Amino acid sequence: KQEVTQIPAALSVPEGENLVLNCSFTDSAIYNLQWFRQDPGKGLTSLLLIQSSQREQTSGRLNASLDKSSGRSTLYIAASQPGDSATYLCAVRLVRTSYGKLTFGQGTILTVHP
Amino acid sequence: GAGVSQSPRYKVAKRGQDVALRCDPISGHVSLFWYQQALGQGPEFLTYFQNEAQLDKSGLPSDRFFAERPEGSVSTLKIQRTQQEDSAVYLCASSSLAGIAYNEQFFGPGTRLTVL
């Protein structure tokens, strides 16, 4: 069974810091990996998607990397802002499912204080 | 509509009551997923529809949970004889394609169910 683990469970940083969120998965036969943001009381917003053949994806201040062989991904956030405060979730799609079911980690709660 | 909508947004039920949660996917989206998110956890897959066909219900935790999508658009998740452990946020997601190709799922805001 695929397991996805995120470290740390919670992170509190001052505004302006660069930070790294970690995600690991046990089954390397993934189709792709996706990072989401979840704000309280709201649904999930997709941030970045990395195909299994890719090493990284960038969007603005966000950079996600993928090392499929070691079962790891990182989300790097540069120059953090209070508006980045949210729960960040990583999720994988397994090759053996034919319709894109997502398997999620438990999330990292990020707080950026002014 | 512009996105996936879910109703009600909040539901409080007494233990033993039946509840029905509704999902309106993005118009024309073929695939529809239900996920359950317990407090402090990531979402967990419940069931998947491709049009009106329920192709995977392996994540439904018990036979008290039932989902349908009779016309291939709106879906309803029904929970019979609710228990306290059913308290969670129920998320619905839809996507335009079927199959293993990159297939972004668009999530609704969820329904927060509290069973007293």
Can you put this structure into words, describing what you see?
The complex is a heterodimer of chains A (114) and B (116). Chain A has no helices and 11 strands. Chain A has strands at 4-7, 10-14, 19-25, 30-38, 44-51, 56-59, 62-67, 72-77, 86-94, 102-104, 108-113. In chain A, the strands form 2 sheets. In chain A, strands 2, 4, 5, 9, 10 and 11 form a 6-stranded mixed β-sheet that branches. Chain A has a 5-stranded antiparallel β-sheet with strand order 1-3-8-7-6, with no helix packed on it. Chain A is globular, with a radius of gyration of 14 Å. Chain B has strands at residues 5-7, 10-13, 19-24, 31-37, 44-50, 53-56, 65-68, 75-79, 88-95, 106-107, 111-115. Classes of the chains: A mainly beta (114), B mainly beta (116). Chains A and B meet through strand 5, strand 9 and strand 10 of A and strand 4, strand 5 and strand 9 of B.
Radius of gyration of chain A: 14 Å
Structural class of chain B: mainly beta
Mean pLDDT of chain B: 93
Instruction: Give the helices and strands of chain A as they follow along the chain.
Output: EEEEEEEEEEE
Low-confidence stretches of chain A: none
Sheet-strand content of chain A, in percent, reads over 45%
Distance between the termini of chain A: 41 Å
Q: Helix proportion of residues of chain B, in percent?
A: under 10%
Rg from Cα of chain B: 13 Å
> Which structural category fits the helices and strands of chain A?
mainly beta
Helix tally of chain B?
0
The largest pleated sheet of chain B is described as: 7 strands, mixed
Tally of strands of chain A: 11
Kindly estimate the percentage of residues of chain B that lie in beta strands according to DSSP: over 45%
